[in-house]
Structures are given as structure tokens and as C-alpha cells.
Amino acid sequence: MTTSPTGLGEPRGPWFVSPELNPADRPGYGVPEAAPRGGGAGAWRRGLLAALAVVALSTASGGLAGGYVASRDPAQGKVAASPPSSPGGASGVPADLVNAAAQALPGVVSVQVGTGSGMAGGSGFAVDDGQHIITNDHILDAGGSGGVTGSAAGGNGTGVTVVGPDGRRLPAQVVGRDPGSDIAVLRVSRSAGLRPLPLAQPKSTRVGEPVLAVGSPLGLSGTVTAGIVSALDRQVRLGHAGRQSAVQTDASINPGNSGGPLVNARGEVIGVNTAIATLEGSGSIGIGFAIPIQRAEQVADRLIRRGG
């Protein structure tokens, strides 16, 4: 008998590896690598890098046509001023972020995958009126579904289900998967009525602008956390394709946020939340990574053309 994740869960998923680290130095899966003791400043730096290599990927956890636009900003490193936002209430939350959350939440779902012994989960979001949903491929890996597409069932006979913002549980078809980019596309019935989220225009994202991470961290659906874009074109190793550029954010991303959208103050998706860096197995420390939406859009479009 399977159970749905309803609360705290275990971090699991693929690794984020600092580009400065040799892959051979990567610690074992799920086991935080302790920092070396002693040895002066050099040992301390090595310990810090090793600790940063530990990732709790948000797993206990498609797309429209668009060209690939690498997030390479020649002005990287220069903080761009964000437009002033309207004042918020006593909490200090800008009103534009409140509006962005209201726009994003109706299109965000929880993704649940049967593992044979329970359920693994993540997040996803609708991108078109055909009810295609972008999510992370590693969420489906948790269910052992391998490369199987075109079915709601994983390779072990268990299913993929999405839970809509209204609480309805809907069987989902796996349209396509791309482990290299860590992007997968699901589809649900048009009767689901999910609101497609608008996607940000290429090169419109700026360092320092406010963002929201939306998803189901630790099984808590409809959760929104706020932060800023910390960096663009951050080179990290995500998925199975080696090093690739990512959007770095300090918005809290936790297990279960994987596959959910990172949205700007206009409610436009700028990235797909995928990983966090941790220190010695701790939770989110304000260093999270999202796949740029232009890359995710390109991959999702290809998967939809191929899989329907």
C-alpha cells in the first residue's frame, strides 16, 4: 500500500557539484562528506568545497516552442537595480510578489511517483492549454520509470499522479524525458483546467530582482518562498550532461520543490527549481539553482513534438 507524502521528507536526488571539484572527489550519494580537521587554511578551504558539494536535491520531491538562449550575460557580476516595488503590508512583502504568487499558484502542481514501497514527490507547472506540465526528470527516476514514455505508469508498474491546486488527484502521462537536462514533460486531461504560466522573455532576468520559488517542499503543496536572483550563468553540474549554466537564487528551495517554477515579480517563470547546495547535510542555506527557462522550454518543446 502506498502513501502520499504529507509532511517532512528525506532529501534525495542527483548531486550539485561545485565546478572547482574533480568528479572523482565527489562524496557518496546521500552521505555528507565531513570537512577535514586541521591542516590550516588549505584544509579549511578543501573542507568547505567538499561540504558545498553535498546536495539535497528537492525530490522526496512541457513546453512551448522557443530557441535556446544560453544565460551568458556579458555584464555578469554587475548587480542590476530592480525596479521599485509597491509597498507591502506589515510583513514587508512587496505587493507585486503577492500578485505574482496569486498568478502562479493556479498553474503549479505536486508530482507524485509510485516507488513500489511508497511515493516520491516533487513539483511541476503547466505551460500550455494542452495541459502539458514541465517538471524535473529526476523525480520520475525515483519511481524507476527509466526511459518509458507515453504511459502513466513507471517501469515498475506504479503510476505518476499530479495533485492540482484544488486538491484533485489526476493521472499523468509521461510525454517525454531528457535526463541530460533534467527536464521531463507530463500531460493531464484538459479537464484539469490548470492555468498555464507565462514564461519570461530571453535575457530579461536581472541579478537582484525579486523572485518566488513555488512548489511542494517536504510535501507541503502550494508553498511560496521569496528571495532574489543571486547570480546568472552560474556554472554547475546538474542532470547527466555535466556542467551547465543555472540561475542562482536565495529563495528557499527544499526537497519537494524540484520541478517547480522560479517566477519573477510579474509572475513569469524564469527557471525550473532543481537543486540546493548544503553544508554538512543541513537544509537550505540560501544557495539554490534553477534551470533557465529558455533551456527548459527548448527541451520541453522537443519532447512534446516527439511524444505528443
Concise summary:
It is built from four helices and 13 strands. The chain has helices spanning 40-52, 95-104, 137-141, 293-307, and strands at residues 108-114, 119-126, 132-136, 160-163, 169-171, 173-178, 183-187, 210-215, 223-237, 243-249, 261-264, 269-276, 288-292.
Distance between the termini: 32 Å
Strand content: 25-35%
- With strands numbered from the N-terminus, the spatial order across the biggest sheet is 5-4-1-2-3-7-6
Radius of gyration: 18 Å
Order of helices and strands: HHEEEHEEEEEEEEEEH
Globally, the shape reads globular
CATH architecture designation of the domain at 107-196: Beta Barrel
As residue ranges, the low-confidence spans are 1-91, 145-149, 153-157
Tell me about the largest β-sheet. Answer: 7 strands, antiparallel
Reading off the top of the CATH hierarchy, the class of the domain at 107-196 is best stated as Mainly Beta
**Mean pLDDT across all amino acids:** 73
Based on the structure, what is the oligomeric state of the protein chains? single chain
Explained architecture:
This protein has 308 residues and is an alpha+beta fold. The protein has a domain at 107-196: Trypsin-like serine proteases (Thrombin, subunit H, Beta Barrel). The chain is 14% helix and 27% strand. The chain contains four helices and 13 strands. It has helices at 40-52, 95-104, 137-141, 293-307, and strands spanning 108-114, 119-126, 132-136, 160-163, 169-171, 173-178, 183-187, 210-215, 223-237, 243-249, 261-264, 269-276, 288-292. It has a seven-stranded antiparallel sheet with strand order 5-4-1-2-3-7-6. A six-stranded antiparallel beta barrel has the order 8-9-10-13-12-11. A hairpin with a 5-residue loop joins strand 2 and strand 3 (132-136). The radius of gyration is 18 Å and the shape is globular.
